[in-house]
């Protein structure tokens, strides 16, 4: 069922994309711009499915987005089909209190070319281009600055905040993982009343390398050229208008259901 041409059409790319860093960057950016991070199936009570064929149907054929597990598992499949050496990894998200989350908290992708690169199209706030794991210096992407720290083969992604501090985002090892290994924690996040994904709509999309929009039923946040703007929504109609504008009319039907 997997069709490279249809997938590339979904993210508005075409042609032969050989395994190069330039093409990896094109694919990564195009995916973040054209495939939103969203949790509509979770709030609709639809059972989760991490099978690649089901993910292809949802994201490519049905023109939907998804949340981290869905997006990165399918993107890793696309990279592999294009000839990239791509492996899923397990990351533990680090909270503001410095505590690390559990294993399989977040899926990421290791892409090995002439150097090793971290890819992540299943995120609502981090880098829009792959991060080089073999470069421990600061890596600047627009108004955001990142750094990789490696201690005893445990890697940490850090992002510099507005006050100039390098804040840890998530940590991971380079042990390859299979999509099915994320099923147990995915089930919890998909169904538990303790999960943030079951409480409200979460929609995020990169509009351009400089602009990201994040929307829920209560507010819209726009980050453009490093400037953050937040607007409280008046009612569900206001939410529906913004949802249609930034994420597509197909989401209005999902909202009704």
Q: What is this structure's SSE topology?
A:
Blueprint: H1 4-10, H2 21-34, E1 37-38, H3 40-43, H4 52-61, H5 68-81, E2 85-93, E3 106-112, E4 116-119, E5 131-132, E6 139-141, E7 144-151, E8 154-160, E9 166-172, H6 183-191, E10 203-208, E11 211-215, E12 219-224, E13 227-232, H7 236-247, H8 250-256
Antiparallel strand pairs: 1-10, 2-3, 2-9, 3-4, 4-5, 6-7, 7-8, 8-9, 10-11, 11-12, 12-13
Keywords:
single chain; 257 residues; alpha+beta; 8-stranded antiparallel sheet; 5-stranded antiparallel sheet; 8 helices; 30% helix; 28% strand
3D structure, described in words:
With 257 residues, the protein is an alpha+beta fold. Helices cover 30% and strands 28% of the residues. It has 8 helices and 13 strands. The chain has helices at residues 4-10, 21-34, 40-43, 52-61, 68-81, 183-191, 236-247, 250-256, and strands at residues 37-38, 85-93, 106-112, 116-119, 131-132, 139-141, 144-151, 154-160, 166-172, 203-208, 211-215, 219-224, 227-232. The strands form 2 sheets. Strands 5-4-3-2-9-8-7-6 form an 8-stranded antiparallel beta sheet, with helices on one face. β7 (144-151) and β8 form a beta hairpin. α4 crosses α5. It is globular and about 50 Å long. The two termini are 28 Å apart. The mean pLDDT is 92.
């Amino acid at each position: 069922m997997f069709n490279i041409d249809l997938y590339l059409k979904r993210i508005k790319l075409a042609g032969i994309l050989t395994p190069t860093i330039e093409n990896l960057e094109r694919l990564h950016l195009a995916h973040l711009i054209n495939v939103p991070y969203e949790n509509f199936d979770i709030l609709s009570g639809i059972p989760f499915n991490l099978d690649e064929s089901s993910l292809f149907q949802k994201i490519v054929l049905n023109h939907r987005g998804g949340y981290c597990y869905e997006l990165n598992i399918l993107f890793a499949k696309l990279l592999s089909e294009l000839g990239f050496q791509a492996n899923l990894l397990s990351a533990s998200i680090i909270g503001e209190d410095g505590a690390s989350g559990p294993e399989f908290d977040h899926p990421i992708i290791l892409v090995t070319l002439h150097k090793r690169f971290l890819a992540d199209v299943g995120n609502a706030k981090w880098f829009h281009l792959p991060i080089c794991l073999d470069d421990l210096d600061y890596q600047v992407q627009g108004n955001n600055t990142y750094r990789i720290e490696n201690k005893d083969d445990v890697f940490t992604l850090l992002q510099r905040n507005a006050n100039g501090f390098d804040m840890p985002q998530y940590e991971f090892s380079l042990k390859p993982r299979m999509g099915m290994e994320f099923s147990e924690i995915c089930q919890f996040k998909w169904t538990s009343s303790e999960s943030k994904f079951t409480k409200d709509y979460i929609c995020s999309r990169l509009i351009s390398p400089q602009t990201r929009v994040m929307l829920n039923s209560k507010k819209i946040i726009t980050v453009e050229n490093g400037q953050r703007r937040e607007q409280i929504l008046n009612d569900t109609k206001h939410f529906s208008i913004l949802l249609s504008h930034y994420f597509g009319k197909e989401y209005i039907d999902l909202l009704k259901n």
